Amino acid sequence: MVLLAITFFSTVTYATEMYDNPANRLSIDKNKTFKLPEFQSDVVKVNINTLSANPGTEFTPPLFSARKVHQYFGITTIALAGLTALSAPDECENRNCTSRDINGIHSKLATATIAAAAAAIATGLYAHWDDFSLQDGWIDPDNLHVLLGVTGAVLMVYAVNKSANSSVPVSHAAIAETGAVLMVVAIKLTW
Predict the structure, then answer these.
(1) Which of 126, 134, 151, 179 has a CA-to-CA distance to 96 between 20 and 30 Å?
(2) What is the C-alpha separation between 103 and 82, in angstroms, rounded?
């Protein structure tokens, strides 16, 4: 409230000073034309040559920042998802599998993929909290990045959970691969 009062009184004072000085008034002659006030033109001078750019000093982003760490976790998630898909064990020929290897390389890579996806989401929330806004609409690239990235991670978590909690082999590859593709699209939107 005090700031509003100070602004009001300073504006009134400035307007009064401008009006009291006859050189600042608009003058209207008999032909209904007016002349703008004559201000001193030498008060503001800009030297254009002082703002020259030095081409030798280009901006290089830091190697580690919150945004870069988010980027690294996102790329790591996609790489681990690809390795997980490549390491999938062969399915049983007659579908009467009695045992499953739940501690093999495929399950360990799947767990690492989920951990990297969770880290990507956490660092994304930290680094890009102010980029997400529903006022920009759902088709805003930042909003789509969040939506597709989180949906992809959730699908991968669901696929890993579905497989890990089953005593027999279950079809989960399509769900996990869809999640990975959604994360790739999310990454591509912002690059």
Answers:
(1) 179
(2) 18
